Amino acid sequence: MSDNVYAITEVVGSSSDSIEDAIDNAVTTATQTLRNLEWFEVGQVRGHIVDGQVEHYQVYVRLGLRYERK
After folding, report:
1. Which of 12, 20, 22, 41 could serve as 59's disulfide partner, Cβ 3.0–4.6 Å?
2. Which band of pLDDT confidence, cut at 50, 70 and 90, is reported for residue 5?
3. How far is CA 18 from CA 1, 35, 42, 67, in A?
4. What 3 state SS string does 35-50 have?
5. Where are the alpha helices (DSSP H) in 1-70?
6. Class of domain 6-66
């Protein structure tokens, strides 16, 4: 394993279906504009309740971006 340096960015993914879909939405969207994403960490899980049922999931995600060496 080489000695890498990482930046960390934070995003919140959401989904009306599941926590996993909220994570996937966060990572998939981030990869469209960020390079060298290598890992993620879930920090918080929140939700919205309507009429006694879970209506929406929100997941706070930290993303690790590897710096490129020149």
Report:
1. 22
2. very high
3. 34, 26, 14, 32
4. CCEEEEEEEEEEEEEE
5. 19-31
6. alpha beta
